[in-house]
Amino acid sequence: MPQTGYVLSGLITAAIIFLGARFWAAPGAASVGFGIAGSPPSSTGFAAWLSVKGTRDIASGLFVILLMTNGSPRLLGEFMFVASLIAFADMVTVLRSRGNRALAFGMHGLTGLAIVATGACLVLGAK
Length: 127
Fold this sequence. Notes:
This is DUF4267 domain-containing protein. This protein has helices spanning 2-25, 27-34, 44-70, 73-96, 101-125. The protein has 127 residues and is mainly alpha-helical.
């Protein structure tokens, strides 16, 4: 079961680093894809805030890589449980802004559940 957790952790990591890079490379498109209603039009200030978000996404992915290479499956799993709060908070943020409900539940909510399942594989499979 830990092997499954490590594979899922790697996939989640690749996705979050890709999304973080997208907020740097194409902030307007990334903003629309996030699902928040009424996102302001692209401006220098808004693009800068999106770069901040992108940096945090990339760093989150690097934390997972660090734990995958140096930590225990249990520690990685516990980290994943905590990290799932980011996806669930993103879901609530999109819903509170009256954003795209399909993106809120389908992307952010399901991502949160996938992260929880990954954490469970790692914690339950740890010795």
